[in-house]
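INFO  loader      accepted 1 record
INFO  loader      residues=171
INFO  predictor   begin
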Amino acid sequence: MTNPITEYADYDSFARAWHSDTLADYEISLEEARERGLLNEQKTRQLWQLLGLLGTDELFVQLPEWLADEKVKAADRTTPTLFVGRISRETEDAILFKESAAARPLMGLAHTIHSLEKGIENTATGTDRHERSKKRLRDHYEQFRNRDGLPTLSDEWLPKSQLVTAVQRRE
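INFO  predictor   done
INFO  writer      dumping tokens
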């Protein structure tokens, strides 16, 4: 089996692939889909921001619902199908996905981190607002690294053939 992980170096390539079904259904370009409001650009940007915060050994995976139901450690919630984590071991047919966490809450944190970083760039150094923003940014980075309390996948082998998608951002 070929490597199931797809890497993207730029946002438009990622968005084009992420929305490939919509683009194919309407037989239109990414630009036209944007103009017609057919894409959830906000969620796509948040996912891109999340990919930018992952370590070089981490990736984003999407699982089919049946596999997520089987592998997710979540008691009282809807079973997530989107996760980040790292590949601990790999065979031709499967990956051992470790240190995973549900991706949706991390997407929100990644967006907040991105916004705070932009705000800090545009705020005068040494001001109270600048210092408060830097503290909030540190706190959000800590939450992003911690990931406690988020649903996780059990540390088991995931068949490569069953991964809906596996994505990394390449710089």
